[in-house]
Amino acid sequence: MSCERVVPRIPVVDLSDENLKAGSYSWNSACHEVRQALEQYGCFELLYSKPCIEFHNTILDAVEELFKLPYEIKKKNINPKPAHGYLGKISIFPIHEGMGIEYATNLQECQHFTHLMWPLGNQHFCETVHSYAKLVAEIQEVVVKMLCESYGIEKEYSESHIKSTTYLMRLLKYRRSEGETNVGFKGHTDKSFLSILHQNHVKGLEIRTKHDSDDQWISYQPSSHSSFAVIAGDACMAWSNDRIKSSYHRVMVEGEEVRYAVGLFSFLKGMIKAPKEVVDEEHPLKYKPFEHQGLLDFYQSSNDHSKGDSNMVKAFCGI
């Protein structure tokens, strides 16, 4: 009898089927899987028909090229919003570097960032990051449509939700030397609606299961070059009226290989409030309507040492 230890994994949802059409059996089944995964784990691994292996390599090569720039150049990536600009050379996270492109689905914003980094231009980099942002925004839209359909929310609502969405791209690098800490980023929940991450082969992302009393951490290892980690943020938790819990996660990097990753974080314009379909006697309303920017401002101004946790959104707009 085999006594091999089963390594826990986050749920996997396969959306790579070219015949996945709204209203079909496979679509309805996938809608259920997406909702179940987010309600139980706050995250899942999504398999998509795109990108091809060449595009996977191209986006990661672009990230590597970016971080080879001198520190004096990279620190020009300034944004007053928390975790929107350059982060690096931080004493508590010495192996982490990150840069941000706000409104990354807008070609002009990608061009602005590119010219900031390369004053003489770098068209290949610009086209690559913009194409990647559009691809992952497409994934986000599919997930939102599936969530809304699973909760019985009207199609017009999901379309309005998608139109009000903006995106922040974070390009990430983690590199440690022998004897250095392996903490790439401490445990936290994202303040986004959804975060969608893509990475190279070097492991690092860890998810804490919410239903285990011993706070078990699940190490995420992508199944293929077309894998994405979809993570629910605090805004999604409030929007779903606590049906979905934001995912508490961290980055822990072993070995000395460089870990490169790209994250696309979605934010909403206007007021965020729970749709009527997620509120009932069993699920009374838990949050007051709020603006996403207001949550970010509250997070930035808070002196609470646990502000990386989902309790932050409850302190901000909980009933």
Please tell me about this protein's structure.
This protein has 319 residues and is of the alpha+beta class. The chain is built from nine helices and 13 strands. The chain has helices at residues 25-40, 53-67, 71-74, 107-117, 123-150, 155-163, 234-239, 292-301, 311-317; strands at residues 12-15, 43-48, 96-102, 165-174, 183-188, 194-199, 205-208, 217-219, 227-232, 249-252, 259-268, 271-272, 290-291. The strands form three sheets. It has a seven-stranded mixed β-sheet. A four-stranded antiparallel β-sheet has the order 5-10-7-8, with no helix packed on it. β7 (205-208) and β8 (217-219) form a beta hairpin. α1 crosses α5 (123-150), α2 crosses α5 and α5 packs antiparallel against α6. The N and C termini lie far apart (53 Å).
Number of helices: 9
Percent in strands: 15-25%
Mean pLDDT: 92
N/C terminus separation: 53 Å
Largest sheet: 7 strands, mixed
| Count of individual beta strands | 13
Low-pLDDT residue spans: none
Record the strand order, biggest sheet.
1-2-9-6-11-4-3
Structural class, by secondary structure, is: alpha+beta
Specify the overall morphology: globular
Estimated radius of gyration: 19 Å
- The SSE string, one letter per element, is EHEHHEHHHEEEEEEHEEEEHH
Q: Fraction of residues in helices?
A: 25-40%
